[in-house]
Design brief:
2 copies of one chain form a homodimer. Helix content of chain A is 72%, strand content 1%. Chain A is mainly α. In chain A, strand 1 (99-100) and strand 2 (103-104) form a beta hairpin.
Chain lengths: 299, 299
């Protein structure tokens, strides 16, 4: 485990630096009345976060010798979606959070209108990046990336899961419904990181299924680990408020399974995720290490 | 003019019916905890609006014998962006509007969180539609459509213009800045309707420029007409509150030019728009009629 954590940390640090530099370039201040909008996007996008999604794109790209540039740009696009979703989820009308990644949330540092627009703009930038030929020379690949990301982030993915999450405050969901909720809310965007590498590698459908299994398992393990951190974690390390689900009366993996069974379940999913990588050698080491890291992290 | 209005009305009625049917199909209720999200999207998307953008895609597609299905799906995607932008712009933190198209706005009929998510989902659905091969068989065309729409709706287009509009309440903009604001806020999405037809027709760059001139001119004329309606129009016909810009202390074409010169300017732009269509015959009649209609409409 120590080796796995070290491998993840090393690559994660590189990816974080590259993503920060890419956002810095993408979000250069225009020097006109849109400056406040760009400042808000920069506040949310630069300097912070685990960059798990871009790291996953890199790790899955390791399997297929995909160019580092392509993997970086795809990771950047997916991170745009992730950051936009955090900005909107933090809004007073949604989860009403004041802190994110150890900084004031965008609507706190700026205002609500600017936060809504900053989210909307990052949402567009994701598709602008993917459709650009710099991302991949093959238009078949680019259009498939667009389709996969639009599906993963829309009503059949992330945003649909967020809606279920809002409804979870009103109804008591059972384990199957909470699992579905999390598969949409966080699982879909994590899965698309791995799927994107498969698309760029023009992998046949069958080979994609196994990779998809890996992604689905770590996505769920990630969410269970998040639920455990929400109960047992350190708010300072997390850089955001904890214990909110219990306060809102929402069912989580921990409330439904208890701490011990939830932890067991997460470890079982990680083993299962790694089993999907049988047949791969050292080129899958980062994917394996990420799976381990996901349940061992402290934030 | 009467003939032009009749031609526009006739085609607009057909397009409106087709767009409503397409939204009805696209937004079929899932029968799960996301029902409220879909109900909110249906509330905003079905039954209402002039459907000017889908009509423009059809009109520009008339020039190049583009399949009616392709034009309809592209119009639907652009209308998804338009509807999402109305939902977000109406939010209390933005323009704080209670009525839209003669109905309560989404956050009034549902709630703010649902409105934010409904907008976000329609935003994704636009790119889902464009990336689907049903929209166009050629992936080069599809990816170019995605790129054009992402540009037109993001920080260099519609959303950037909306940010400038928010800043307009704090500063006094001059005519050049108001023109730029409107070119971004409404012009970019109107222009992409015409540009999309040029992309589907695989038109060379030079021929695209003239069409772009048409689109830029009617986009600006449309906004001047909107400013005139905001001052002189009938709120019942408009289905929304009027006179809001003056109340917010924002400069508009009417406040900067006066009613008479603003109206002159709009008519001049319409003439100029039609001049860009020289060389085209009857196949451009709908584009010409739309240009006339834009400054003659009463809502």
């Amino acid at each position: 485990m120590a080796g796995a954590a070290a491998l993840v940390m090393l690559r994660a640090r590189d990816v974080a630096r590259e993503i920060d530099a890419a956002f810095d370039h993408l979000l250069a201040m225009p020097g006109d009345p849109r400056d406040r909008l760009y400042a808000a996007m920069r506040h949310a996008a630069i300097g912070g976060g685990k960059r798990l999604r871009p790291l996953l794109v890199q790790a899955a790209s390791d399997l297929f010798n995909i160019s580092r540039d392509s993997a970086l740009r795809v990771g950047l696009a997916i991170e745009c979606i992730h950051v936009y979703s955090l900005i909107h989820d933090d809004l007073p009308a949604m989860d009403d959070d004041d802190m994110r990644r150890g900084k004031p949330t965008v609507h706190k540092a700026f205002d609500e209108a600017t936060a809504i627009l900053a989210g909307d703009c990052l949402h567009d930038l994701a598709f602008q990046i993917l459709s650009d030929e710099e991302t991949h020379p093959d238009p078949f690949v680019r259009i498939e990336l667009v389709q996969a990301l639009a599906l993963a982030s829309g009503p059949a993915g992330m945003a649909g899961g967020q809606m279920m999450d809002l409804e979870a405050e009103k109804t008591r969901f059972d384990l199957a419904t909470v699992t579905r909720l999390q598969n949409l809310k966080t699982g879909a965007l994590i899965a698309v990181c791995v799927e994107a590498a498969a698309i760029m590698a023009r992998l046949p459908a069958e080979a994609r299924l196994r990779l998809h299994g890996y992604a689905r398992d770590i996505g769920l393990a990630f969410q269970i680990a998040d639920d455990l951190l929400d109960v047992e974690g350190d708010a300072t390390l997390a850089g955001k408020a904890l214990g909110k689900d219990a306060a809102a009366g929402k069912e989580t993996f921990v409330s439904l399974l208890g701490v011990d069974r939830a932890r067991e379940q997460a470890h079982m999913l990680v083993d299962q995720a790694k089993a999907h990588l049988h047949g791969h050698g050292a080129e899958a080491d980062l994917l394996r290490a990420i799976a381990d890291y996901i349940v061992e992290r402290d934030r």
